Amino acid sequence: MLIHEYLGPAGVLLKLLDRHPMRPAHIHLMISREGYVPVTTQIFPKDDPYLETDTVFAVKDDLVVDFKPLQGDPNATLELEYNIVLAPTEREVTVAKF
Ligand SMILES: [Fe+2]
User: Fold this and answer.
1) How far is the CA of 41 from the centre of ligand 1 (A)?
2) How far separated are the first and last CA of the chain, in Å rounded?
3) Of 12, 29, 44, 71, which one has the greatest count of Cβ atoms within 10 A?
4) pLDDT tens digits, the chain, 98 residues: what are they?
């Protein structure tokens, strides 16, 4: 059984809009490295029932991931390989001359 709770002003607004207050499960990521533009984002498991109706509209296709079963680790049951590319803070600019 799912329990939807409408809490606080945001909950009142969502209820007025006839939207549920649920978010899909997610993991926050903050990635930074000197010389690159930092990235803050979230990733979502592909089987979450709230992907299509995330109440804050944060789900993007590139952020939906497929966790794989992990064996042999007493502290985890799933694993994920997810590549993140950071943009350099300074780019070399090539000017074409005609
Ligand atoms: Fe969160």
Assistant:
1) 10
2) 68
3) 44
4) 456 788 899 889 999 999 999 999 999 999 999 999 999 999 999 999 999 999 999 999 999 999 999 999 999 999 999 999 999 998 766 777 77
Is 41 domain-assigned? yes
For residue 94, the CA-to-ligand 1 centroid distance in Å is 40
**CA atoms of 36 and 34, how far apart (whole Å):** 6
CB atoms within 10 A of CB 54: 17
Which domain, by its residues, includes 60?
22-79
Residue 91 CA, ligand 1 centroid: distance in Å: 32
Cα 26 to ligand 1 centre (Å): 6
Number of domains in the chain: 1
Query: What is the whole-number distance in angstroms between the Cα of residue 14 and the centre of ligand 1?
Result: 17
Which positions ≥6 away from 85 have C-beta within 8 Å? Answer: none
